[in-house]
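Field reference: sequence -> structure
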Amino acid sequence: MRKKREIFLLDKFPYILFGIILIFSLIVFLPIRSCMPLNFFSGAQEETENELEYSIFISSPTNNKIFSFINQNETVPVEIKAKEAENTDYTIKLLINDNEIKSFTSPPYEYNWNPGSSGEYEMIAQLVDGNGNIISSSNKVSFTVEYEFETAEEDTIISIDVEEKKAKILSQSIFRSQNTIPAGVPLFSYKCYIPPVIDGIFQEWDRFESFTAFEPTVKKENYTTHTDISGTFYSCWDDDNFYFVVQVVDDVFNQKYTGNQLNKGDSITIVFDTELEEDMQIPFYNSDDYQIDFSPGNFSDIFEGSFMNYPSNAPPRGVNVASIKLANGYLLEASIPWYNFPNYIPNDEDVLGFTISILDTDNLDSTEVVISSSKIFDFNNVSTLGTIVLLDAGNIQIDEEEPEDEGITESTD
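Structure field:
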């Protein structure tokens, strides 16, 4: 018979030590754990709002986006992703501040929303069945719209006599006031006594009137903001030429065409009606109408150019074009000899049909959107032209003469 082995306290020491360590660990661990996020110990990552959490998802605008607009035509680009809804009969409703602004029954779920006023907005999209029941809702997006209506300071001081001259011309002339921006006020082009140098330099134009209120006219549903496409236009004239410069803001520059195709790329189009009063009721082009396209080139292997689409369908004679690439667009400057307009001789107070348009293509193979100096514009309808007035305001290009120094006489030997 085997003798039973005695168990001493020392034999139990490893177990006792393990128990003490376990108890101590629990005492220390539990307070620390209560201070840590639950997913710290589970290995799970903190969830963030993303497309996978929703059956429909607003990808544009992004949350907390601030839109700074400079004119009433700019829009907020809206894009909704909803793959599950593409093969159903459901409708997607877009709400801003609880008001429905748009509904979609098929993709693409994209829309350019014009807010019209500054403010804070909240956007949500809802997937709705045929009975009006909400099947699911998207993420909520908050954004801010700020309109910056700035009154441009006039660099040129125009005398009261010139303002009276303008008022007299407007009161006695016939033109399509509904097409002008702002309504009833045409463009004024001052006579220059020193012709501008066509070299792509902007500074010498600051004595003439500028125009910036371009409005989307062709494919205007594609217009978003002034950072996509906008421009500043100056002009002047003398007995020999019509001169102009346009500084274009364009976030994506694209010009790969020449000749009669140049208006498929980023370009400028000018249309004149030299007998406006006689053509008030005529929508089609005739012998006194002229359309000229201008290209800045691509600043590489395509040079600046121009092409007269009407009436000659050929490059205009003697036109001089210069352009420079800017960080956010380009500048184009040109002179057009009046002899390209047969039977027309420029005179002070002449009132002409006129529209200048900026064509934007971005990365497309043809025009995406056109903004113009007239409220409405159609390339094939001259009754949509705005108005320009040729005005002799005196020599506004020179500074006031400084008084000659007195008491100094030329010495003679």
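Note: The helical segments are 13-35, 38-42, 160-172.
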